[in-house]
Amino acid sequence: MSTEPITVFEGREIDVSWDSRLCIHLGECGKAEGELFVAGREPWCQPDAVSRAEVREVVERCPTGALSYRDKIGTPEPAPAENRCLVANNGPLYLTGDLEIEGAPEDMPGVRRRVALCRCGASKNKPFCDNSHVEVRFEDGGAVGSRGPGLSERGGPLRVRVMPNGPLKLEGNLTILAGSGRPAWEGTQTALCRCGASKNTPFCDGSHRTLGFKSD
Q1: What's the rounded Cα separation, in Å, for the pair 11 and 216?
Q2: Are the beta carbons of 130 and 84 closer than 8 angstroms?
Q3: Could you tell me which of 124, 127, 123 has the C-alpha nearest to residue 108?
Q4: pTM exceeds 0.90, yes or no
Q5: Alpha-carbon distance 165 to 163, whole Å?
Q6: SS in 3 state form for 132-158?
Q7: Number of independent structural domains in the chain
Q8: Residues 117 and 44 in one domain
Q9: Hey, which of 61, 143, 177, 180 would disulfide with 28, CB 3.0 to 4.6 Å?
């Protein structure tokens, strides 16, 4: 078995890549209807089993960026019309949009559109989620109280700065969704907690300094 983090499944019209460093096994691919992903089959992903359009649609369901595609006619995955951050119930921050993740390796193409970022403070793969929130029994329902200053426009680049031993600083047009799915906060600048200790989640309140949070 290959020890490389990325496995490429080649098709005639489109290739699919799976990055083990980002996958937290949510099952959006495996539960999708059709023959693109079939557990126990070798290989488990077969891009030629469905249409190019279906490959794109199913791969774009992956919320962590672990799955990405390379369309051989040169069509890249489009940036969503809006940048969004879902504060998952007892889980990570799911970002979608035109993302610029500071420090993300060049060989992680999926995180330019979709990524799951740790907010429990326990991930061993920071800033990415690795499901450690389950192990440490992180509890936060994803409620968002603030409405934010609002937005005058949508979309565009969203820069995500990973502050050493501190929060995630987001710059760009952004809508934050509560764990219930409710669009809650809108604005162009915010700092989100990633130590797991803020009393004002999902926003940073400086608790990382009191906690002595280490991001490495």
Answers
A1: 38
A2: no
A3: 127
A4: yes
A5: 6
A6: HHHHCCCCCCCCCCCCCCCCCCCCCEE
A7: 2
A8: no
A9: 61
